[in-house]
Protein: Multifunctional fusion protein
Amino acid sequence: MTAPARVAGPDAESSLVWDDGALVVVDQRQLPHKVELLRLESVDEVIGAIRTLAIRGAPAIGLAGALGVAISAHRHRRADGSCDEPLVRADAEKLATARPTAVNLAWAVRRVLTALEGGPEAVLAEATAMLAEDRATNLRAARRAADLVCDLVPRRPLRVLTHCNTGRLATAAVGTALGAILELHARHLVAEVLVGESRPLLQGARLTAWELDQADVPYRLCVDSAGAAAMARGMVDVVLVGADRIAANGDTANKIGTYGLAVAAARHGVPFVVVAPESSWDPRTAGGEAIEVEERPAAEVIGFGGTAVGPRDARAFNPAFDVTPGELITAVVTEDRVFDPHRDAPAAGRDAARQLATFTREMYTRGWMPGTSGNLSVRTSGDRALITASGRDKGDLTENDVVEVDARTGVPVDPDGPRASAETSIHAAVYRATDAGAVIHVHAPHATAVACRTGGPRTAVLPLSGFELLKGLRLADPSATALPVFANHARVADIADEVAAYVAGHPDGPPGLLIADHGVTAWGADLAQARNHLECLESICQLLLLGARPVWPVADPTAGRDERTDAS
Structure:
């Protein structure tokens, strides 16, 4: 097999390749003196490669785990073309726990399992799609990080210190922190890179130095214990490192030695920047103290390359990682954002969660969310949203009673966490069809009563005109509108599909809707605006019931069906 090609910038080829039922990877244990490819044809071989560090780097082991599930799905193919799901899931569990600290591994395995019902080819398609996504993700993060460094550091050219290996060997391609260094080099902004050895396995000296040499980037190896001295002597303008797991408060687990570099950087006023994909965030882990740190064998410390460097019976303290408190980190850069642990809310959106809980309790005190009914959501960074958890008493809701979901699909980011509200798919339909930043679904009495009187088996609309309160809905034409009333199907997903189609087809429609025999939903740029829209709709419905206007739904003219025309 041929070695990976020499590269001259961040657009490097992948170090993981699918080849006719097997995973082919660069054996990182052999670098830098020999480039050897491993062909992994079984789940046990993939697990072995991960545990022995032939494959390493949080994104890379996650992708290897996903492709390991694809190997299992192909090996356990039934005669009808489907997968033997119990066997594949058993293999997936072994893969997900091959190494404990990097969150990407379990995340990637869980994601690829969602395609299991489609058979082996669907699993493989999902896994290979993740390879392409990782490359694009890393390229965006690298460029964003390079831009940030240029803003943080006025000196040109730059002197960068990095630790461990965060390049294409640690990912599908490009790299994270090393990807940012290569991007800076492509802009002719790098004077020199100091590469920490990263003892005891020397990932910096063996792997990062090799990648920099491949890319013609000037570098020097730096003894691990000399990083602080280099900063004290003014030899470092910025520190760039990766991450294996990032807690909700910004605490970051990375290769052992990272914490010490962060302390030194803070002491000497050197920016300390973490570059990692969004998949490295772990919203279930509140802080670094809850991150499990892998302990490696003593043999890695007392000997290297077959040569003993200490007494053979010596004991060793050999953690693979340490945890850097968020307060020591200048910024965490991902493909979607720049997170400042000193200023921003945590990845899970703690401030947004608190606001969500506050608004929910307010809706409860108004009598609009009795018991556990109703749900609120707010869009956070990128395509994520927080929504109230299912089955929670809304009067006692706290910031811990929310679920992070994909705003486009409503699928929880953490499938093992609290269950999202049953109406999450309706919120997702609104987010897909509009630029809303928040959605509120409640059982406000007057709007719900109107929904009970006007709904039917198909979508109808309730014409509204002449109400001063229509101005509060921020309509293009505040003199009149048509409020959609959706059928209350047994499957919430069916309601969501109809909502998505209707709202997308009526961009000038009102920021709200009714669901027959159920309740009212409103949305806005944020929770405050969504609440204002909801109050306007509730007041208009109250006026309708008081006889100010007839409660008179008509057929949805876009549906092409006959509806009930008189529900009064």
Q: What stands out?
A: Residues 1-12, 560-568 have pLDDT under 50 and may be disordered. Residues 16-134 form a domain with the Four Helix Bundle (Hemerythrin (Met), subunit A) fold (CATH 1.20.120.420). The chain has 15 helices and 25 strands. The CA atoms of residues 164 and 203 lie 5 Å apart.
